[in-house]
Protein backbone atom coordinates (compact mmCIF):
# COMPACT_ATOMS: atom_id res chain seq x y z
CA UNK A 1 0.00 0.00 0.00
CA UNK A 2 1.08 3.56 -0.72
CA UNK A 3 2.94 5.00 2.31
CA UNK A 4 0.99 8.27 2.31
CA UNK A 5 -2.34 6.39 2.33
CA UNK A 6 -1.13 3.99 4.97
CA UNK A 7 -0.24 6.90 7.25
CA UNK A 8 -3.63 8.46 6.59
CA UNK A 9 -5.35 5.22 7.59
CA UNK A 10 -3.15 4.58 10.60
CA UNK A 11 -3.88 8.06 11.86
CA UNK A 12 -7.65 8.07 11.30
CA UNK A 13 -8.84 4.52 12.00
CA UNK A 14 -8.37 4.83 15.79
CA UNK A 15 -10.22 8.15 15.71
CA UNK A 16 -13.11 6.55 13.81
CA UNK A 17 -13.15 3.64 16.26
CA UNK A 18 -13.28 5.99 19.20
CA UNK A 19 -16.09 8.04 17.65
CA UNK A 20 -18.07 4.87 16.96
CA UNK A 21 -17.64 3.77 20.55
CA UNK A 22 -18.79 7.19 21.77
CA UNK A 23 -21.88 7.17 19.57
CA UNK A 24 -23.00 3.85 21.03
CA UNK A 25 -22.25 4.27 24.71
CA UNK A 26 -23.81 7.62 25.67
CA UNK A 27 -26.93 7.32 27.83
CA UNK A 28 -28.96 4.33 28.83
CA UNK A 29 -29.63 1.25 26.72
CA UNK A 30 -29.88 -2.43 27.70
CA UNK A 31 -26.40 -3.93 28.17
CA UNK A 32 -27.00 -6.96 25.97
CA UNK A 33 -28.16 -4.75 23.11
CA UNK A 34 -25.21 -2.42 23.45
CA UNK A 35 -22.79 -5.35 23.59
CA UNK A 36 -24.27 -6.81 20.45
CA UNK A 37 -24.07 -3.48 18.62
CA UNK A 38 -20.50 -2.85 19.75
CA UNK A 39 -19.43 -6.40 18.90
CA UNK A 40 -20.13 -5.92 15.22
CA UNK A 41 -18.97 -2.33 15.11
CA UNK A 42 -15.67 -3.32 16.70
CA UNK A 43 -15.30 -6.34 14.41
CA UNK A 44 -13.69 -3.70 12.33
CA UNK A 45 -13.09 -4.28 8.72
CA UNK A 46 -11.26 -1.77 6.65
CA UNK A 47 -13.30 1.36 7.55
CA UNK A 48 -13.17 2.27 3.87
CA UNK A 49 -16.42 4.22 4.00
CA UNK A 50 -15.59 6.56 6.88
CA UNK A 51 -12.06 7.01 5.54
CA UNK A 52 -13.51 8.13 2.19
CA UNK A 53 -15.52 10.86 3.92
CA UNK A 54 -12.35 12.08 5.60
CA UNK A 55 -10.33 11.80 2.40
CA UNK A 56 -12.63 14.23 0.58
CA UNK A 57 -12.12 16.85 3.27
CA UNK A 58 -8.38 16.23 3.21
CA UNK A 59 -8.30 16.73 -0.57
CA UNK A 60 -10.19 20.00 -0.23
CA UNK A 61 -7.91 21.09 2.58
CA UNK A 62 -10.94 21.70 4.79
CA UNK A 63 -11.29 20.75 8.43
CA UNK A 64 -14.69 19.94 9.92
CA UNK A 65 -15.22 19.12 13.58
CA UNK A 66 -18.21 17.02 12.50
CA UNK A 67 -16.40 14.95 9.87
CA UNK A 68 -15.70 12.01 12.19
CA UNK A 69 -19.33 11.85 13.26
CA UNK A 70 -20.59 11.83 9.69
CA UNK A 71 -17.96 9.28 8.74
CA UNK A 72 -19.00 7.07 11.64
CA UNK A 73 -22.69 7.36 10.76
CA UNK A 74 -21.97 5.64 7.44
CA UNK A 75 -20.08 2.88 9.20
CA UNK A 76 -23.08 2.31 11.49
CA UNK A 77 -25.31 1.85 8.44
CA UNK A 78 -22.75 -0.46 6.82
CA UNK A 79 -22.48 -2.52 10.01
CA UNK A 80 -26.23 -2.88 10.43
CA UNK A 81 -26.51 -4.12 6.85
CA UNK A 82 -23.82 -6.75 7.47
CA UNK A 83 -25.53 -8.04 10.62
CA UNK A 84 -28.85 -8.44 8.81
CA UNK A 85 -27.15 -9.83 5.71
CA UNK A 86 -25.51 -12.58 7.76
CA UNK A 87 -28.81 -13.78 9.32
CA UNK A 88 -29.89 -17.37 8.64
CA UNK A 89 -32.81 -16.14 6.53
CA UNK A 90 -30.44 -14.08 4.38
CA UNK A 91 -26.90 -15.31 3.60
CA UNK A 92 -26.71 -17.56 6.68
CA UNK A 93 -23.07 -16.83 7.40
CA UNK A 94 -21.41 -18.08 10.58
CA UNK A 95 -18.26 -16.03 10.12
CA UNK A 96 -17.49 -12.50 9.04
CA UNK A 97 -13.93 -11.15 8.93
CA UNK A 98 -12.83 -14.35 10.66
CA UNK A 99 -15.10 -13.77 13.66
CA UNK A 100 -18.41 -15.36 14.55
CA UNK A 101 -21.30 -13.38 13.11
CA UNK A 102 -23.51 -11.37 15.44
CA UNK A 103 -26.42 -13.83 15.58
CA UNK A 104 -24.05 -16.74 16.32
CA UNK A 105 -22.92 -14.90 19.45
CA UNK A 106 -26.03 -13.02 20.59
CA UNK A 107 -28.86 -14.97 18.98
CA UNK A 108 -31.01 -13.99 16.02
CA UNK A 109 -33.52 -11.82 17.84
CA UNK A 110 -30.84 -9.63 19.39
CA UNK A 111 -28.99 -9.49 16.07
CA UNK A 112 -32.08 -8.22 14.27
CA UNK A 113 -32.62 -5.57 16.94
CA UNK A 114 -28.95 -4.59 17.10
CA UNK A 115 -29.05 -3.98 13.36
CA UNK A 116 -32.21 -1.94 13.73
CA UNK A 117 -30.73 0.18 16.50
CA UNK A 118 -27.49 0.73 14.57
CA UNK A 119 -29.48 2.16 11.69
CA UNK A 120 -31.28 4.48 14.11
CA UNK A 121 -27.98 5.48 15.70
CA UNK A 122 -26.66 6.56 12.30
CA UNK A 123 -29.50 9.03 11.81
CA UNK A 124 -29.17 10.16 15.40
CA UNK A 125 -25.51 10.95 14.76
CA UNK A 126 -26.33 13.11 11.73
CA UNK A 127 -29.06 14.90 13.66
CA UNK A 128 -26.62 15.69 16.47
CA UNK A 129 -23.85 17.51 14.59
CA UNK A 130 -22.68 20.55 16.48
CA UNK A 131 -20.68 22.49 13.96
CA UNK A 132 -22.77 22.13 10.82
CA UNK A 133 -25.77 24.23 9.81
CA UNK A 134 -29.18 22.62 10.26
CA UNK A 135 -29.73 22.88 6.48
CA UNK A 136 -26.57 20.92 5.71
CA UNK A 137 -27.22 18.37 8.45
CA UNK A 138 -30.73 17.80 7.18
CA UNK A 139 -29.41 17.37 3.63
CA UNK A 140 -27.04 14.71 5.00
CA UNK A 141 -29.95 12.89 6.69
CA UNK A 142 -31.89 12.94 3.42
CA UNK A 143 -28.93 11.76 1.36
CA UNK A 144 -28.12 8.95 3.79
CA UNK A 145 -31.74 7.83 3.78
CA UNK A 146 -31.83 7.83 -0.03
CA UNK A 147 -28.53 5.97 -0.22
CA UNK A 148 -29.38 3.32 2.33
CA UNK A 149 -33.11 2.71 1.86
CA UNK A 150 -35.42 1.04 -0.67
CA UNK A 151 -33.99 3.05 -3.56
CA UNK A 152 -30.40 2.47 -2.46
CA UNK A 153 -28.64 -0.19 -0.42
CA UNK A 154 -31.67 -2.17 0.79
CA UNK A 155 -33.15 -2.10 -2.71
CA UNK A 156 -29.83 -3.45 -3.95
CA UNK A 157 -29.95 -6.29 -1.47
CA UNK A 158 -33.35 -7.30 -2.81
CA UNK A 159 -32.04 -7.10 -6.39
CA UNK A 160 -29.07 -9.20 -5.31
CA UNK A 161 -31.32 -11.86 -3.77
CA UNK A 162 -33.51 -11.96 -6.83
CA UNK A 163 -30.45 -12.05 -9.05
CA UNK A 164 -29.22 -15.21 -7.38
CA UNK A 165 -32.11 -17.09 -8.91
CA UNK A 166 -31.45 -15.84 -12.45
CA UNK A 167 -28.43 -15.32 -14.67
CA UNK A 168 -27.88 -11.60 -14.97
CA UNK A 169 -26.64 -9.46 -17.84
CA UNK A 170 -23.67 -7.19 -17.16
CA UNK A 171 -26.08 -4.25 -17.04
CA UNK A 172 -28.26 -5.97 -14.46
CA UNK A 173 -25.22 -6.94 -12.41
CA UNK A 174 -24.05 -3.32 -12.32
CA UNK A 175 -27.57 -2.23 -11.34
CA UNK A 176 -27.31 -4.54 -8.32
CA UNK A 177 -23.92 -3.20 -7.30
CA UNK A 178 -24.72 0.45 -7.89
CA UNK A 179 -27.50 0.01 -5.35
CA UNK A 180 -26.13 -2.56 -2.94
CA UNK A 181 -22.70 -1.06 -2.38
CA UNK A 182 -22.42 1.94 -4.72
CA UNK A 183 -25.11 4.11 -3.15
CA UNK A 184 -23.49 4.16 0.28
CA UNK A 185 -20.01 4.79 -1.16
CA UNK A 186 -21.47 7.68 -3.13
CA UNK A 187 -22.96 9.05 0.06
CA UNK A 188 -19.51 9.04 1.67
CA UNK A 189 -18.08 11.12 -1.14
CA UNK A 190 -21.01 13.50 -1.36
CA UNK A 191 -21.19 13.94 2.40
CA UNK A 192 -17.50 14.81 2.50
CA UNK A 193 -18.04 17.25 -0.35
CA UNK A 194 -20.94 18.94 1.44
CA UNK A 195 -18.91 19.32 4.63
CA UNK A 196 -16.01 20.67 2.54
CA UNK A 197 -18.26 23.25 0.88
CA UNK A 198 -17.70 21.88 -2.63
CA UNK A 199 -19.61 23.53 -5.48
CA UNK A 200 -22.21 21.78 -7.67
CA UNK A 201 -19.77 21.12 -10.47
CA UNK A 202 -17.23 19.56 -8.12
CA UNK A 203 -19.95 17.46 -6.48
CA UNK A 204 -21.02 16.13 -9.90
CA UNK A 205 -17.40 15.12 -10.66
CA UNK A 206 -17.09 13.46 -7.25
CA UNK A 207 -20.36 11.56 -7.78
CA UNK A 208 -18.93 10.16 -10.96
CA UNK A 209 -15.71 9.25 -9.12
CA UNK A 210 -17.81 7.49 -6.47
CA UNK A 211 -19.76 5.52 -9.07
CA UNK A 212 -16.55 4.32 -10.67
CA UNK A 213 -14.79 3.30 -7.47
CA UNK A 214 -17.98 1.62 -6.30
CA UNK A 215 -18.07 -0.62 -9.34
CA UNK A 216 -14.30 -1.13 -9.18
CA UNK A 217 -14.64 -2.17 -5.54
CA UNK A 218 -17.19 -4.82 -6.46
CA UNK A 219 -15.24 -6.19 -9.42
CA UNK A 220 -12.20 -6.47 -7.16
CA UNK A 221 -14.30 -8.32 -4.58
CA UNK A 222 -15.48 -10.74 -7.26
CA UNK A 223 -11.93 -11.27 -8.53
CA UNK A 224 -10.59 -11.83 -5.01
CA UNK A 225 -13.34 -14.35 -4.36
CA UNK A 226 -11.92 -16.40 -7.24
CA UNK A 227 -8.22 -15.85 -6.63
CA UNK A 228 -7.73 -15.44 -2.88
CA UNK A 229 -7.64 -18.17 -0.27
CA UNK A 230 -10.21 -18.72 2.46
CA UNK A 231 -7.66 -17.64 5.04
CA UNK A 232 -7.00 -14.33 3.30
CA UNK A 233 -10.72 -13.54 2.97
CA UNK A 234 -11.79 -14.60 6.46
CA UNK A 235 -14.75 -16.31 4.79
CA UNK A 236 -14.99 -19.29 2.43
CA UNK A 237 -13.32 -18.50 -0.92
CA UNK A 238 -15.17 -19.28 -4.13
CA UNK A 239 -18.46 -18.83 -2.28
CA UNK A 240 -19.89 -16.99 -5.28
CA UNK A 241 -18.81 -19.71 -7.72
CA UNK A 242 -20.35 -22.35 -5.50
CA UNK A 243 -23.71 -20.61 -5.55
CA UNK A 244 -23.58 -20.03 -9.34
CA UNK A 245 -24.16 -16.36 -8.74
CA UNK A 246 -23.56 -13.95 -11.59
CA UNK A 247 -20.26 -12.13 -11.05
CA UNK A 248 -17.89 -10.11 -13.19
CA UNK A 249 -15.53 -13.08 -13.67
CA UNK A 250 -18.45 -15.38 -14.55
CA UNK A 251 -19.75 -12.89 -17.13
CA UNK A 252 -16.47 -11.52 -18.50
CA UNK A 253 -13.89 -14.13 -17.57
CA UNK A 254 -11.13 -13.34 -15.11
CA UNK A 255 -9.10 -11.35 -17.63
CA UNK A 256 -12.15 -9.45 -18.84
CA UNK A 257 -13.01 -8.58 -15.26
CA UNK A 258 -9.49 -7.25 -14.71
CA UNK A 259 -9.74 -5.05 -17.81
CA UNK A 260 -13.09 -3.72 -16.65
CA UNK A 261 -11.59 -3.00 -13.24
CA UNK A 262 -8.80 -1.00 -14.85
CA UNK A 263 -11.33 0.95 -16.93
CA UNK A 264 -13.27 2.04 -13.87
CA UNK A 265 -10.05 2.87 -12.07
CA UNK A 266 -8.93 5.15 -14.90
CA UNK A 267 -12.35 6.80 -15.06
CA UNK A 268 -12.28 7.43 -11.33
CA UNK A 269 -8.87 9.09 -11.47
CA UNK A 270 -9.97 11.29 -14.39
CA UNK A 271 -12.92 12.59 -12.37
CA UNK A 272 -10.43 14.03 -9.89
CA UNK A 273 -8.62 16.25 -12.42
CA UNK A 274 -10.12 19.38 -10.86
CA UNK A 275 -8.25 18.76 -7.61
CA UNK A 276 -5.04 20.79 -7.18
CA UNK A 277 -2.82 17.87 -6.14
CA UNK A 278 -2.30 15.08 -8.65
CA UNK A 279 -1.81 12.61 -5.81
CA UNK A 280 -4.95 13.20 -3.86
CA UNK A 281 -6.14 10.85 -1.13
CA UNK A 282 -9.16 10.00 -3.25
CA UNK A 283 -6.81 8.95 -6.04
CA UNK A 284 -4.81 6.88 -3.57
CA UNK A 285 -8.03 5.19 -2.48
CA UNK A 286 -8.90 4.38 -6.07
CA UNK A 287 -5.45 2.78 -6.44
CA UNK A 288 -5.87 0.91 -3.18
CA UNK A 289 -9.25 -0.49 -4.17
CA UNK A 290 -7.87 -2.12 -7.30
CA UNK A 291 -4.60 -3.28 -5.71
CA UNK A 292 -5.78 -4.63 -2.36
CA UNK A 293 -5.33 -8.33 -1.63
CA UNK A 294 -8.35 -8.67 0.68
CA UNK B 1 -66.67 5.87 20.80
CA UNK B 2 -67.18 9.60 21.25
CA UNK B 3 -68.80 11.08 18.12
CA UNK B 4 -66.38 14.01 17.88
CA UNK B 5 -63.37 11.68 18.03
CA UNK B 6 -64.95 9.28 15.57
CA UNK B 7 -65.40 12.11 13.06
CA UNK B 8 -61.81 13.19 13.63
CA UNK B 9 -60.60 9.67 12.89
CA UNK B 10 -62.89 9.14 9.90
CA UNK B 11 -61.64 12.37 8.40
CA UNK B 12 -57.93 11.86 8.98
CA UNK B 13 -57.28 8.12 8.55
CA UNK B 14 -57.73 8.21 4.75
CA UNK B 15 -55.40 11.22 4.59
CA UNK B 16 -52.77 9.34 6.61
CA UNK B 17 -53.18 6.28 4.39
CA UNK B 18 -52.71 8.38 1.27
CA UNK B 19 -49.62 10.07 2.71
CA UNK B 20 -48.14 6.70 3.64
CA UNK B 21 -48.75 5.41 0.13
CA UNK B 22 -47.09 8.52 -1.33
CA UNK B 23 -44.04 8.19 0.89
CA UNK B 24 -43.44 4.65 -0.32
CA UNK B 25 -44.15 4.91 -4.04
CA UNK B 26 -42.10 7.88 -5.23
CA UNK B 27 -39.05 6.97 -7.31
CA UNK B 28 -37.54 3.62 -8.09
CA UNK B 29 -37.32 0.65 -5.77
CA UNK B 30 -37.63 -3.10 -6.49
CA UNK B 31 -41.30 -4.06 -6.88
CA UNK B 32 -41.16 -6.99 -4.47
CA UNK B 33 -39.67 -4.79 -1.76
CA UNK B 34 -42.22 -2.06 -2.29
CA UNK B 35 -45.07 -4.58 -2.22
CA UNK B 36 -43.81 -6.02 1.02
CA UNK B 37 -43.48 -2.57 2.60
CA UNK B 38 -46.93 -1.49 1.41
CA UNK B 39 -48.52 -4.76 2.51
CA UNK B 40 -47.72 -4.13 6.15
CA UNK B 41 -48.32 -0.40 6.01
CA UNK B 42 -51.75 -1.00 4.46
CA UNK B 43 -52.56 -3.74 6.96
CA UNK B 44 -53.72 -0.73 8.86
CA UNK B 45 -54.43 -0.97 12.48
CA UNK B 46 -55.83 1.95 14.36
CA UNK B 47 -53.33 4.62 13.25
CA UNK B 48 -53.30 5.82 16.86
CA UNK B 49 -49.80 7.24 16.60
CA UNK B 50 -50.27 9.47 13.56
CA UNK B 51 -53.67 10.53 14.85
CA UNK B 52 -52.06 11.67 18.11
CA UNK B 53 -49.66 13.93 16.20
CA UNK B 54 -52.61 15.50 14.41
CA UNK B 55 -54.64 15.75 17.63
CA UNK B 56 -51.99 17.93 19.27
CA UNK B 57 -52.10 20.39 16.39
CA UNK B 58 -55.90 20.37 16.47
CA UNK B 59 -55.89 21.13 20.21
CA UNK B 60 -53.53 24.04 19.66
CA UNK B 61 -55.63 25.29 16.75
CA UNK B 62 -52.55 25.25 14.54
CA UNK B 63 -52.36 23.99 10.96
CA UNK B 64 -49.14 22.57 9.54
CA UNK B 65 -48.76 21.42 5.95
CA UNK B 66 -46.12 18.97 7.20
CA UNK B 67 -48.20 17.42 9.97
CA UNK B 68 -49.35 14.45 7.86
CA UNK B 69 -45.80 13.65 6.83
CA UNK B 70 -44.54 13.71 10.40
CA UNK B 71 -47.53 11.65 11.51
CA UNK B 72 -46.84 9.10 8.78
CA UNK B 73 -43.16 8.89 9.65
CA UNK B 74 -44.11 7.55 13.08
CA UNK B 75 -46.41 4.99 11.52
CA UNK B 76 -43.53 3.80 9.30
CA UNK B 77 -41.40 3.23 12.40
CA UNK B 78 -44.26 1.46 14.15
CA UNK B 79 -44.86 -0.77 11.12
CA UNK B 80 -41.20 -1.72 10.75
CA UNK B 81 -41.10 -2.71 14.41
CA UNK B 82 -44.16 -4.95 13.97
CA UNK B 83 -42.67 -6.71 10.94
CA UNK B 84 -39.45 -7.48 12.78
CA UNK B 85 -41.33 -8.36 15.98
CA UNK B 86 -43.37 -10.99 14.12
CA UNK B 87 -40.32 -12.77 12.67
CA UNK B 88 -39.78 -16.44 13.61
CA UNK B 89 -36.69 -15.52 15.63
CA UNK B 90 -38.71 -12.96 17.61
CA UNK B 91 -42.39 -13.57 18.46
CA UNK B 92 -42.92 -15.98 15.56
CA UNK B 93 -46.43 -14.76 14.76
CA UNK B 94 -48.28 -15.97 11.68
CA UNK B 95 -51.08 -13.44 11.98
CA UNK B 96 -51.29 -9.75 12.79
CA UNK B 97 -54.59 -7.89 12.80
CA UNK B 98 -56.21 -10.98 11.28
CA UNK B 99 -53.88 -10.99 8.27
CA UNK B 100 -50.85 -13.14 7.52
CA UNK B 101 -47.69 -11.50 8.82
CA UNK B 102 -45.21 -10.04 6.36
CA UNK B 103 -42.72 -12.92 6.42
CA UNK B 104 -45.50 -15.48 5.88
CA UNK B 105 -46.36 -13.73 2.61
CA UNK B 106 -43.00 -12.43 1.36
CA UNK B 107 -40.49 -14.67 3.11
CA UNK B 108 -38.21 -13.82 6.00
CA UNK B 109 -35.41 -12.19 4.05
CA UNK B 110 -37.72 -9.73 2.33
CA UNK B 111 -39.52 -9.07 5.62
CA UNK B 112 -36.26 -8.15 7.35
CA UNK B 113 -35.33 -5.81 4.50
CA UNK B 114 -38.81 -4.30 4.23
CA UNK B 115 -38.62 -3.45 7.92
CA UNK B 116 -35.17 -1.95 7.42
CA UNK B 117 -36.33 0.17 4.50
CA UNK B 118 -39.43 1.35 6.37
CA UNK B 119 -37.24 2.66 9.14
CA UNK B 120 -35.12 4.50 6.58
CA UNK B 121 -38.24 5.88 4.89
CA UNK B 122 -39.36 7.39 8.20
CA UNK B 123 -36.18 9.43 8.54
CA UNK B 124 -36.34 10.34 4.87
CA UNK B 125 -39.84 11.72 5.43
CA UNK B 126 -38.69 13.94 8.30
CA UNK B 127 -35.72 15.15 6.26
CA UNK B 128 -38.04 16.10 3.38
CA UNK B 129 -40.47 18.45 5.12
CA UNK B 130 -41.19 21.48 3.00
CA UNK B 131 -42.86 23.89 5.39
CA UNK B 132 -40.83 23.43 8.54
CA UNK B 133 -37.54 25.10 9.41
CA UNK B 134 -34.41 22.98 9.09
CA UNK B 135 -33.82 23.44 12.84
CA UNK B 136 -37.22 22.03 13.73
CA UNK B 137 -37.00 19.22 11.19
CA UNK B 138 -33.60 18.22 12.52
CA UNK B 139 -34.96 18.26 16.07
CA UNK B 140 -37.70 15.89 14.90
CA UNK B 141 -35.12 13.53 13.37
CA UNK B 142 -33.18 13.52 16.62
CA UNK B 143 -36.26 12.96 18.75
CA UNK B 144 -37.52 10.13 16.52
CA UNK B 145 -34.10 8.48 16.64
CA UNK B 146 -33.99 8.76 20.44
CA UNK B 147 -37.54 7.42 20.75
CA UNK B 148 -37.11 4.48 18.39
CA UNK B 149 -33.51 3.36 18.93
CA UNK B 150 -31.48 1.56 21.58
CA UNK B 151 -32.57 3.97 24.30
CA UNK B 152 -36.21 3.86 23.24
CA UNK B 153 -38.36 1.34 21.38
CA UNK B 154 -35.68 -1.15 20.34
CA UNK B 155 -34.17 -1.06 23.82
CA UNK B 156 -37.66 -1.79 25.14
CA UNK B 157 -37.98 -4.80 22.88
CA UNK B 158 -34.78 -6.19 24.32
CA UNK B 159 -36.01 -5.53 27.88
CA UNK B 160 -39.28 -7.24 26.92
CA UNK B 161 -37.47 -10.32 25.59
CA UNK B 162 -35.29 -10.52 28.66
CA UNK B 163 -38.33 -9.97 30.86
CA UNK B 164 -40.03 -13.04 29.44
CA UNK B 165 -37.43 -15.19 31.10
CA UNK B 166 -37.90 -13.61 34.55
CA UNK B 167 -40.78 -12.48 36.71
CA UNK B 168 -40.77 -8.71 36.75
CA UNK B 169 -41.66 -6.22 39.45
CA UNK B 170 -44.24 -3.56 38.60
CA UNK B 171 -41.43 -1.05 38.26
CA UNK B 172 -39.53 -3.26 35.82
CA UNK B 173 -42.70 -3.91 33.83
CA UNK B 174 -43.29 -0.17 33.48
CA UNK B 175 -39.67 0.30 32.43
CA UNK B 176 -40.29 -2.16 29.59
CA UNK B 177 -43.45 -0.39 28.46
CA UNK B 178 -42.08 3.13 28.79
CA UNK B 179 -39.42 2.09 26.30
CA UNK B 180 -41.18 -0.42 24.07
CA UNK B 181 -44.35 1.55 23.39
CA UNK B 182 -44.17 4.72 25.49
CA UNK B 183 -41.18 6.33 23.79
CA UNK B 184 -42.79 6.36 20.35
CA UNK B 185 -46.12 7.61 21.73
CA UNK B 186 -44.23 10.40 23.50
CA UNK B 187 -42.57 11.28 20.22
CA UNK B 188 -45.99 11.69 18.60
CA UNK B 189 -47.08 14.16 21.23
CA UNK B 190 -43.82 16.09 21.30
CA UNK B 191 -43.59 16.22 17.51
CA UNK B 192 -47.10 17.63 17.33
CA UNK B 193 -46.19 20.16 20.02
CA UNK B 194 -43.07 21.24 18.12
CA UNK B 195 -45.03 21.70 14.90
CA UNK B 196 -47.68 23.62 16.87
CA UNK B 197 -45.06 25.92 18.35
CA UNK B 198 -45.82 24.93 21.96
CA UNK B 199 -43.66 26.47 24.68
CA UNK B 200 -41.33 24.50 26.99
CA UNK B 201 -43.84 24.43 29.82
CA UNK B 202 -46.59 23.10 27.59
CA UNK B 203 -44.24 20.50 26.11
CA UNK B 204 -43.37 19.30 29.62
CA UNK B 205 -47.10 18.90 30.43
CA UNK B 206 -47.67 17.06 27.17
CA UNK B 207 -44.72 14.73 27.84
CA UNK B 208 -46.34 13.80 31.12
CA UNK B 209 -49.67 13.26 29.32
CA UNK B 210 -47.89 11.00 26.82
CA UNK B 211 -46.24 8.97 29.56
CA UNK B 212 -49.58 8.39 31.23
CA UNK B 213 -51.50 7.41 28.11
CA UNK B 214 -48.59 5.18 27.08
CA UNK B 215 -48.83 3.18 30.28
CA UNK B 216 -52.64 3.26 30.13
CA UNK B 217 -52.49 1.91 26.58
CA UNK B 218 -50.38 -1.03 27.71
CA UNK B 219 -52.49 -1.86 30.76
CA UNK B 220 -55.55 -1.83 28.51
CA UNK B 221 -53.78 -4.18 26.07
CA UNK B 222 -52.97 -6.53 28.93
CA UNK B 223 -56.55 -6.42 30.23
CA UNK B 224 -57.98 -7.04 26.75
CA UNK B 225 -55.65 -9.98 26.30
CA UNK B 226 -57.34 -11.57 29.32
CA UNK B 227 -60.92 -10.52 28.63
CA UNK B 228 -61.33 -10.30 24.83
CA UNK B 229 -61.86 -13.18 22.43
CA UNK B 230 -59.38 -14.29 19.77
CA UNK B 231 -61.76 -13.04 17.10
CA UNK B 232 -61.88 -9.55 18.61
CA UNK B 233 -58.10 -9.32 18.90
CA UNK B 234 -57.22 -10.76 15.49
CA UNK B 235 -54.53 -12.77 17.30
CA UNK B 236 -54.75 -15.58 19.87
CA UNK B 237 -56.29 -14.30 23.12
CA UNK B 238 -54.56 -15.12 26.41
CA UNK B 239 -51.24 -15.30 24.56
CA UNK B 240 -49.56 -13.48 27.43
CA UNK B 241 -51.02 -15.82 30.05
CA UNK B 242 -49.89 -18.84 28.04
CA UNK B 243 -46.32 -17.62 27.98
CA UNK B 244 -46.35 -16.76 31.70
CA UNK B 245 -45.21 -13.29 30.85
CA UNK B 246 -45.43 -10.61 33.54
CA UNK B 247 -48.42 -8.35 32.84
CA UNK B 248 -50.44 -5.84 34.82
CA UNK B 249 -53.22 -8.38 35.50
CA UNK B 250 -50.68 -11.03 36.55
CA UNK B 251 -49.00 -8.58 38.95
CA UNK B 252 -52.02 -6.63 40.22
CA UNK B 253 -54.97 -8.88 39.46
CA UNK B 254 -57.61 -7.85 36.93
CA UNK B 255 -59.28 -5.41 39.30
CA UNK B 256 -55.98 -3.91 40.40
CA UNK B 257 -55.01 -3.43 36.76
CA UNK B 258 -58.30 -1.64 36.09
CA UNK B 259 -57.68 0.73 39.02
CA UNK B 260 -54.18 1.45 37.77
CA UNK B 261 -55.59 2.12 34.31
CA UNK B 262 -58.02 4.63 35.76
CA UNK B 263 -55.22 6.32 37.70
CA UNK B 264 -53.15 6.86 34.56
CA UNK B 265 -56.21 8.05 32.71
CA UNK B 266 -56.96 10.66 35.36
CA UNK B 267 -53.33 11.79 35.41
CA UNK B 268 -53.32 12.15 31.63
CA UNK B 269 -56.43 14.30 31.63
CA UNK B 270 -55.00 16.51 34.40
CA UNK B 271 -51.90 17.21 32.30
CA UNK B 272 -54.16 18.84 29.71
CA UNK B 273 -55.58 21.47 32.06
CA UNK B 274 -53.64 24.22 30.29
CA UNK B 275 -55.59 23.66 27.08
CA UNK B 276 -58.46 26.12 26.49
CA UNK B 277 -61.12 23.52 25.64
CA UNK B 278 -62.03 21.04 28.37
CA UNK B 279 -62.90 18.46 25.73
CA UNK B 280 -59.71 18.40 23.72
CA UNK B 281 -58.93 15.71 21.19
CA UNK B 282 -56.05 14.56 23.37
CA UNK B 283 -58.53 14.11 26.23
CA UNK B 284 -60.83 12.20 23.90
CA UNK B 285 -57.92 9.95 22.94
CA UNK B 286 -57.16 9.30 26.59
CA UNK B 287 -60.81 8.27 27.05
CA UNK B 288 -60.69 6.11 23.94
CA UNK B 289 -57.55 4.29 25.05
CA UNK B 290 -59.16 3.13 28.29
CA UNK B 291 -62.57 2.37 26.78
CA UNK B 292 -61.62 0.59 23.53
CA UNK B 293 -62.65 -3.04 23.08
CA UNK B 294 -59.73 -4.01 20.82
TrEMBL record, chains A, B:
Database matches in PROSITE patterns: POLYPRENYL_SYNTHASE_1, POLYPRENYL_SYNTHASE_2
**Cross-referenced Pfam families:** polyprenyl_synt
Q: Quick check: keyword Metal-binding in the entry? A: yes
Q: Which InterPro entries match?
A: Isoprenoid_synthase_dom_sf (IPR008949), Polyprenyl_synt (IPR000092), Polyprenyl_synt_CS (IPR033749), Prenyl_diphosphate_synthase (IPR053378)
Which CDD domains does UniProt cross-reference here?
Trans_IPPS_HT
Q: Does the keyword Transferase apply?
A: yes
* Needed cofactors: Mg(2+)
Q: Which domain of life is it from?
A: Bacteria
Q: What does the UniProt keyword field contain? A: Isoprene biosynthesis, Magnesium, Metal-binding, Transferase
- Give the family this protein belongs to, as stated in its UniProt record: Belongs to the FPP/GGPP synthase family.
UniProt name for this protein: Polyprenyl synthetase family protein
Give the originating organism: Sporosarcina saromensis
Amino acid sequence: MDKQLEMFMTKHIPMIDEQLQQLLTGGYSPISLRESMLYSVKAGGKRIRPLLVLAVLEDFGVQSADALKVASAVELIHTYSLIHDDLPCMDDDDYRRGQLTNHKVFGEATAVLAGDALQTAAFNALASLENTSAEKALALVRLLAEASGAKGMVGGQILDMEGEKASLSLEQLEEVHLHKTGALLSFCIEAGAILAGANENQIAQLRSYARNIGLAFQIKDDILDVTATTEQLGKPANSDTDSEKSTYPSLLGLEGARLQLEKYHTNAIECLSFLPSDKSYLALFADYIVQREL
